[in-house]
Amino acid sequence: MFEYTAQGGKCYRGHLTVSAARELCKHRNLDFSKYEVQAMVLGWGIEILQACFLVADDIMDGSTTRRGKPCWYKNQTVQLDAVNDSLILESWIYFLIKNYFPAGAKRSALVEVFQQVSLETQLGQMLDLTSQPQGQRKSEVKLENFNLKMYKQIVTYKTACYTFYLPLACAILLTGEPGQSQDKELQTARDICIELGEKFQIQDDYLDCYGKPEMIGKIGTDIQDHKCSWLCVQALKLMNAGQRKNFEVCDCISNYISA
User: How far, rounded to the nearest angstrom, does the alpha carbon of residue 69 sit from its chain's CA centroid?
Assistant: First the structure.
């Protein structure tokens, strides 16, 4: 299960964790070799968290492929047992932290940041899901809440926090000491990562629509899923009344068919 779900991606979240820790060691005049194993453990922890989210997300979205192969739940020997597998994946992160970090302030801070980011990501997923019809059809489907403010909220919590902020936060907590300076570093990193996350998600939304499945490793379903994507938000801002009416009709038909 771990080999199928946690491997096969680009692993840039894990690489970012290790790279950030290496650079911070240079900045702090620390010997990176003393932190390297723990940095890799944290990197794999984030990759496992990513796998946890993807397993659950694919079930909720009804996706068919992930990383160029069937989604985990699409395997006949797995199916909805994948729900429990996603919980196992998340729990394994804290098993790793407990076994590679001695009890103390650093371990507590790392557990706390993983828990915080996990909750934020889950809330972002909730915002994303509430933009979808969830059993509604035709005239019941609404687009009034599809705007840039809603999009940025979804992106911040669903993508930016665990994709960019969590790797940097782990590196900061691993190589630094608690205090006001560390708190400032974490806040600065978070502010920058929110902006990076927005750019990343805009690109992902574009590829979901226009990317070739053999290149991006999945079949995009944002349109069928009635998601508040970047393309949808921008289209709603630009279209006139007649185009808006036609867009709503096509959107309702799409959801009627997919339901």
Answer: 19
Nearest to 159 by CA among 230, 215, 96: 230
CA-wise closest residue to 38 among 107, 91, 137: 107
Determine the pLDDT at residue 136. Answer: 53
For 61-206, list the strands marked E by DSSP. Answer: 65-66, 69-70
Q: Which domains are seen in the chain, by residue range?
A: 2-258 (1.10.600.10)
Residue with tokens 């010997």: 31
User: Between β-strands 65-66 and 69-70, what pairing exists: parallel, antiparallel or unpaired?
Assistant: antiparallel
- The number of angstroms, rounded, from the C-alpha of 84 to the middle of its chain's C-alpha atoms is 19
Contact 93, 49 (CB under 8 A): yes
CA dist., res. 240 & res. 167, Å (int): 42
Residues 6+ apart with CB under 8 A from 30: 24, 175
62 Rama sector, left if φ>0, alpha if ψ -120 to 50, beta otherwise:
left
For the chain, residues with pLDDT lower than 70 are 132-142, 251-259
pLDDT digit string (tens) for 175-218?
998 888 999 999 999 999 999 999 999 999 999 889 888 778 77
pTM summary value:
0.83
Alpha carbon distances (Å) from 106 to 31, 147, 155, 170, 193: 18, 40, 29, 10, 22
**Element spanning 41, H or E:** helix 36-61
User: How far is Cα 226 from Cα 216, in angstroms, rounded to an integer?
Assistant: 20
Token code pair at residue 54:
């993807």
